[in-house]
Design brief:
Shape: globular
Organism: Amphibiibacter pelophylacis
Number of strands: 0
Protein name: Addiction module antidote protein
Largest sheet: none
Radius of gyration: 15 Å
Distance between the termini: 55 Å
Structural class: mainly alpha
Helix content: 55-70%
Number of helices: 5
Low-confidence stretches: none
Order of helices and strands: HHHHH
């Protein structure tokens, strides 16, 4: 008997504001740039890429390109995406190790 598996898609789990906020908080805390872009892309898909394009003032194709793996989007693009998603970037002091 073989077991049938399906690929895991995090977008299916991002079904509430609480889930989205916790997911983004964890990813941003880790600080990996590629993972942050990937997470923003996941949230964008969960919320609807077309609506996010409208809300951010970016073209859909530009939005896909900005959030794809390996992309190097401008900081103002990331700010526009975050604003459209209702996410605020805020500075937080880090603990010095020592």
């Amino acid at each position: 008997m073989s077991i049938k598996t399906v690929p895991f898609d995090i977008v299916a789990e991002l079904d509430s504001e609480a889930a989205i906020q916790e997911y983004l908080a964890q990813v941003f805390a880790d600080g990996d740039t590629d993972e942050i872009l990937r997470a923003l892309g996941h949230v964008a898909r969960a919320r609807g890429m077309t609506q996010l394009a409208v809300d951010s003032g970016l073209g859909r194709e530009n939005l896909y390109n900005a959030l794809k793996p390996g992309a190097k989007p401008r900081f103002d693009t990331i700010l526009r995406v975050c604003h459209a998603l209702g996410v605020q970037l805020a500075p937080k002091a880090v603990q010095a190790s020592g």
